[in-house]
């Protein structure tokens, strides 16, 4: 049933069986109902699981029925979010350390926020927008037990995925790679299953956490290549150009000329900022767009392939199966 026809909202919270002694009122970061609750005009379902001491998992699939602005407050924590669908923006509100910091919501984008003090924020959502996302929140105590707190405290603006920061808050974002997106989808599906398999939620949460931490601070001590601000802007411009016209037969040389970078610098920049090469990034975006078209817009396999730049359906099907583990026909049938 479409979300907009339900016109009601449910928030369900519980501890996993293997963490049954948890105090559900001890939310990490903020109460689960600060963003989505039955006091604002939304429909759909949100679930929060206390996975272990200091780790909450939240899965949302909701639709905003009216233009909505909500103010929230968050305690110190690490938040990891994968937004599958969504629009609008969030903002960290101004204080003595600086003005508002806006964070645009973009589909298939991974966000990380690490805070060391209580922060106030605002979320703006347009009417009709759908929010489907998975979120992990980790306490400082858990991060210390995992041996990751010191690395997080050292984060600064030189990190390749850094988007904005000021005293007490560091925010990063990245376009989701197929591996990360698939891990997020599996966690979201496990968290929304009926009945819920607690072991599956636990295992998939840990897998998603491990992938996310490698984007921030690899456990092997590896250093993520830094990119200066000027080159980052041009790399992001190149990524935007490809995302806006996926059917175009892009070449690295043409793209490099268009954004004013040498081919070598463009290729190095993509690997540093997005973790994949230029062509790999384009392929990832094409496949995810095709999957969205088939799953949400009832577009045929052939039409989806053509819309994202694949004239050969067999080649498209091979790439799709390699990325998602299923055929495009299966995605079309399950839509």
CATH class of the largest domain: Mainly Beta
Coarse morphology: globular
What is the total domain count? 2
Give me the CATH superfamily of the largest domain: Jelly Rolls
CATH topology of the largest domain: Jelly Rolls
Mean pLDDT across all amino acids: 86
Low-confidence runs of at least 5 consecutive residues: 1-6, 220-224
Summarize the helix and strand pattern as letters.
HEEEEEEEEEEHHEEHHHHHHHHH
Helical fraction equals 25-40%
Q: Which CATH architecture of the largest domain is right?
A: Sandwich
Sheet having the most strands: 8 strands, mixed
Number of strands: 12
Structural class: alpha+beta
Gyration radius, in Å: 20 Å
**Helix run count:** 12
Spatial arrangement of strands, main beta sheet = 1-2-3-10-5-8-12-11
Strand fraction band? 25-35%
End-to-end span in angstroms?
12 Å
Please tell me about this protein's structure.
Pfam families: HTH_18. There is one protein chain. The chain has two domains: 3-216, Sandwich (Jelly Rolls); 229-334, Homeodomain-like (Arc Repressor Mutant, subunit A, Orthogonal Bundle). It has helices spanning 3-6, 140-145, 149-153, 178-191, 198-216, 229-244, 252-259, 263-274, 278-296, 301-307, 313-324, 328-334; strands at 9-15, 42-52, 55-64, 68-74, 78-85, 89-92, 101-104, 109-115, 119-125, 130-138, 162-166, 169-175. Strand 6 (89-92) and strand 7 (101-104) form a beta hairpin. The strands form two sheets. Strands 1-2-3-10-5-8-12-11 form an eight-stranded mixed sheet. A four-stranded antiparallel sheet has the order 4-9-6-7, with no helix packed on it. The model is unreliable at 1-6 and 220-224 (pLDDT under 50). The radius of gyration is 20 Å and the shape is globular. It is an alpha+beta fold and 335 residues long.
């Amino acid at each position: 049933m479409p979300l907009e026809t339900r016109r009601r909202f449910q928030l369900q919270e519980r501890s996993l069986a293997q963490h049954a002694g948890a105090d559900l009122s001890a939310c990490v970061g903020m109460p689960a109902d600060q963003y989505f609750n039955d006091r604002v005009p939304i429909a759909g379902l949100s679930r929060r699981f206390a996975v272990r001491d200091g780790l909450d998992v939240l899965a949302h699939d909701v639709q905003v029925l009216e233009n909505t602005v909500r103010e929230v407050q968050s305690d110190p924590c690490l938040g990891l979010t994968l937004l599958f669908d969504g629009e609008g923006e969030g903002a960290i509100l101004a204080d003595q350390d600086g003005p508002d910091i806006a964070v645009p919501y973009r589909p298939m984008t991974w966000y990380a926020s690490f805070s060391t003090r209580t922060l106030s924020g605002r979320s703006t959502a347009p009417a009709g927008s759908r929010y489907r996302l998975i979120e992990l929140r980790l306490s400082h105590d858990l991060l210390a037990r995992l041996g990751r707190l010191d690395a997080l405290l050292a984060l600064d603006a030189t990190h390749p995925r850094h988007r904005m920061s000021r005293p007490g808050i560091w925010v990063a974002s990245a376009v989701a790679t197929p591996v990360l997106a698939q891990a997020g989808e599996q966690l979201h599906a496990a968290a929304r299953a009926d009945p819920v398999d607690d072991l599956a939620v636990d295992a998939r949460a840990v897998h998603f956490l491990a992938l996310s931490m490698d984007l921030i601070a690899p456990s092997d001590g590896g250093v993520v290549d830094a990119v200066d601000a000027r080159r980052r802007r041009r790399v992001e411009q190149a990524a935007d150009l490809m995302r806006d016209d996926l059917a175009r037969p892009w070449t690295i040389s043409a793209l490099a000329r268009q954004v004013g970078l040498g081919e070598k610098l463009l290729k190095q920049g993509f690997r540093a900022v997005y973790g994949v090469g230029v062509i790999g990034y384009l392929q990832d975006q094409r496949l995810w767009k095709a999957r969205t078209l088939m799953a949400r817009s009832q577009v045929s396999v052939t039409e989806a392939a053509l819309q994202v730049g694949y004239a050969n359906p067999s080649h498209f099907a091979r790439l799709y199966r390699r990325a998602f583990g299923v055929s495009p026909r299966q995605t079309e049938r399950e839509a």
